[in-house]
Amino acid sequence: MMTGPPRAVTVWCAPTVPVSCGSAALLTTDEAGTVGSFLRADDRDRFATGRALTRAVLGETLGVPPRGVDVRMGAPGGPAPGKPVVSGGPAFSVSHAGSWVLVAVVDDVGAHGVDVGVDVEAAAGVGRHLDDLAGVVPVAERPAAGWTARTLTRSWVRREAVLKAVGTGLGAPRDDLLLTPPDAAPAVLCSRGALPEPTCLAVHDVELPPLGTVASEHLAAVALRSRKPHHAVIAAVTVADGLGVLARHGVRVPPGPKARRGGRP
User: Fold this and answer.
1) Collapsing DSSP states into helix, strand and coil, what is residue 81?
2) I need a labelling partner for 115 at 20 to 30 A (CA). Which of 57, 65, 157, 191 fits?
C-alpha cells in the first residue's frame, strides 16, 4: 500500500485581542466592515483576531504584508467548497471559541490536494447542554463511561475538524461520519455519502497551552483531507505562539490572560 508524504501542521494559537489593540489595521476594508456589523464586543474581537492572525501568519509564509494576502472562499463546485483559500498559499483553517483563536496551516506550501480543518470549543458551554448535544454524534461514539462535558467536547471538535477539512461543515448527516470514541486515539472509522473514504481523512487532538489564569477548559482538534486514498497522513502537530505573530505586525498585546508560550515562536 502506497501512502503520501506525511504532512506537518502548525496550529497558531492566540487569546482574543480587543479590536482597540490594532488588529483592525491588518484587515481589508470589507473585513473591517464586518467587524463593525457585530453588536457584541466579544464577537467583534473574536472575528478581528481570527482574520488578523490568519493574515499575519499567511503573510509571513508568503513574504507579503498581511493586507496583501488574498483570502477567498472556495467555489461551490471546486475542490474546497466554502473553505477560505489563498491562491499559491498553504491550506489553512480558522476557528475561535470563548477566549481562543486558532489558525491551522499545513507547513508544506506546495502541498496539492490536501485540505486542513481545525476546531476549538469550550467544554463548559457543551456541559450546559449535555443532554441535547449528545444526540449530534453517533451512538457508537459514546464512551464506555458515558458522556461528560469533556468527552462530548472532544468528540465534537474532532468531528467538526474533519468536516471543515472536507468543506461540508456540520451540514453533513450525523451518521455519515463515525469516529473513534473520545476516550480512544482519534481516527476515522467510517465515512459515506458525500464524504471521502476514511483513508482520505486523518484527525489529531491538539493540546492547547494554559491560558493565564482562565479556568475555562477548551479542547481542540485538527484534521486533514486528501484527494487520494492513504495520503492524509499527519506527521506532527506543532502548537505555536499566535500573539508573537500579531505583535510583530503592530498589534498591541493587552495585559490580562495570555497563552503561555511553547512550541514555535
Assistant:
1) coil
2) 65
